[in-house]
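Appendix B. Worked example

We walk through a single record from start to finish. Start with the input: the chain for ABC transporter permease, Paenibacillus oralis, length 249.
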Amino acid sequence: MSSLLASWHNELEKLWLKKSTKAMLGLAVIVPLMLTLLTRFLNDAAGLGAALSGQAALLTLNLFTGILLPLYLAMSAVELFAGETAARTIKLALVRPVTRAKLFASKVLALAAFTAIILAAAWLASSVCGLWAGSADPLAEWAESTIAYAVSVVPMLAVSLAAVWIAQYFAGSAAALGCAVLVYLAGKLLPLFYPPLALWSLYSYTDWHLLWGGGGAPAGKLLSSFFILLAYSMMAYIGGLATFERKLF
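Next comes the structure step. The output line below is what the pipeline stores for this chain.
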């Protein structure tokens, strides 16, 4: 366990030092602020802001889970695996008294930790901006946004694990990132042309938080979609780990 924690701490430090991580944390603060300013401007200029008042939190979440976080997670997963393979620095990690399984787990846990941190930062910034913007029912909107941000961790973890699995098949960052982005785009766009695919496409669940808003979806639908995300996560983790264990560095 100590070797896993030490390796996890090392992977966390790697991600923290990346410019993309700092950029995401910066956007987590800037985006809700800009959206709040926009709604206030619309309200003052044309009286349109009332319809969007208090919605900065959910608008921010839609942007992060739909575009920004999947891209960040793909970039980070590629750098932690394919990037280190290309740079041959992953060999140094394997020299330490840590198994491949623990090294793999530590990288996945680091991605999970920063997923939660970025979403928490966006939620906190959105909540503060929401208090400033004013709302007819701030407590209800705060509770709804809190639930939405919390449950969004689940599909984002599944997306990160899919990116990790894809990264195992490449020895260079550019090709791995290109493939991860293409898979994501295919998973998002194909259901638009063939709707039945939406049920089985992992990337159709990036807006899973919408099922929890308002009155919420039926419990059966929430449970079935959760198990689909869990199944994808397990398959991606096991598939990625099996490939990582056999890979030559």
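Two observations about the output. The mean pLDDT is 89. The chain has one domain: 2-246.
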